[in-house]
Amino acid sequence: LNLFELGCINATEWAIYQDWHSFLVEQFGHRVELQGIIYLRSSPQKCMERLRRRGRHEENEVKLDYLDKLHVQHERWLVEKSTEIHFDKLKKVPVLLLDAGVEFQSDPEVQEQFITKVKNFLDAL
């Protein structure tokens, strides 16, 4: 499900989103193609905890149910590769999965592991 299918945006917003995407691809072509995706995987509960801790006004209305659906979508797309993708090149984009559920903010060792994994991933692209 996408944002439109989830009812998070209306038909007009969805049409604008699609038009904008098409415009960017037409105008910039290869310059906007994804080379790789870094998926910061975390549970919806951990994401909600971090949202609340940040305390951003614009995130006050985010519900756990939405984060659950978003998580399932990302898992299907980036891990299981079971989401229908309409762009062939996007199906082949490499994905680096990082466990963002761990507390890395105050752990230099985990930070270093993440940095090494990202560097290796980028070097391999």
From TrEMBL:
Keywords: Kinase, Transferase. It comes from the Eukaryota. SUPFAM superfamilies: P-loop containing nucleoside triphosphate hydrolases. Gene3D superfamilies: P-loop containing nucleotide triphosphate hydrolases (3.40.50.300). The keyword Transferase applies. One of its GO terms (molecular function) is deoxyguanosine kinase activity. Residues 3-122 form the Deoxynucleoside kinase domain. One of its GO terms (cellular component) is mitochondrion. Pfam families: dNK (PF01712). PANTHER family: DEOXYGUANOSINE KINASE, MITOCHONDRIAL, DEOXYNUCLEOSIDE KINASE. This is Deoxyguanosine kinase. It comes from Nothobranchius kuhntae (Beira killifish).
